[in-house]
């Protein structure tokens, strides 16, 4: 029953009710985006330890942190994430190697040859540093606009052109032959110009032997925004021979949230987890954080927030119950 499920997530709850345990039984990873600084918050650390089996670094594996100056790598914060994951028996999903945001200023001023060299060196060095300790990388993040064109505001696109994406994937494969290499983007969840463009790129890569193993569908959604063709869309990518993941799920609601908003949010979380369970090659779902207390959403979307499954006081929301129900109904399709 919902009340019993909620109680299981409260302090002292039973481990067998954890999302990670339910996900494992269904053959799916259940992950969250981690900020290692938050581990000093006792409730954050407790939920992280007991409810999830995968972590993705929210920020500390991005370029501005890992290579703030040309050739000077700072892996300490990312190492903290990896050590935490290993100590708590979690997988690490690497996020990310190449993105037009979160870049140090020195990268943005390079000419074509220098930028290509810097990108390849960055990908090679970072992927090699965590080789064998990370199960997958978002090699390139957010290379397309919503109309299906390549992003005009990306320095990599402006200076290097379309080929930088392929170059990054080939460089990552050379640095770590065993890690899964993923393309990750937002607004891919439905069939439309953007997902069609990414689909065409992935199909082309597969046909030409460019290494790509998975596609990440971020899932930053407004309440009521789960597309009706989500499963169909995931399936068509999977049919290309790649895995799919929901990589950054949150569902924002108007704030302050009403009971009705929270019920609709629960329906959306349940629908996304159920969609992943329906698609055999969907490896799992990662939420972009644990608690509403630390979410990025209110700083970007005025008058919206509360997008996660624990509220700001770490109380499980109806969305938690919906995820438990979806995972509990799942059939094991991959171990």
UniProtKB/TrEMBL annotation:
Q: Write out the catalytic residues in the record.
A: 248
Query: One Pfam family for this entry, by name?
Result: Glyco_hydro_10
Stored Gene3D superfamilies: Glycosidases (3.20.20.80)
State the SUPFAM superfamilies in the record.
(Trans)glycosidases (SSF51445)
Per the UniProt record, which EC number(s) apply here? 3.2.1.8
Q: Is ATP-binding included in the keywords of this UniProt record?
A: no
Q: What GO MF terms are annotated?
A: endo-1,4-beta-xylanase activity
**UniProt KW keywords:** Carbohydrate metabolism, Glycosidase, Hydrolase, Polysaccharide degradation, Signal, Xylan degradation
Task: Name its GO BP terms in alphabetical order.
Answer: xylan catabolic process
The source's superkingdom equals Bacteria
- Which InterPro entries does the annotation name? GH, GH10, GH10_AS, GH10_dom
Broadest EC class?
A: hydrolase
What SMART domains does the record point to? Glyco_10
Indicate the segments forming the GH10 domain, all copies: 16-326
Write down the chemical reaction(s) this protein catalyses.
Answer: Endohydrolysis of (1->4)-beta-D-xylosidic linkages in xylans
Hydrolase keyword on record: yes
The entry assigns this protein to a family as follows: Belongs to the glycosyl hydrolase 10 (cellulase F) family.
- PANTHER family, alphabetized: BETA-XYLANASE (PTHR31490:SF88), GLYCOSYL HYDROLASE (PTHR31490)
Q: What is this protein called?
A: Beta-xylanase
Q: Give the organism, scientific name.
A: Cellulomonas composti
Q: What is the lineage of its organism?
A: Bacteria, Bacillati, Actinomycetota, Actinomycetes, Micrococcales
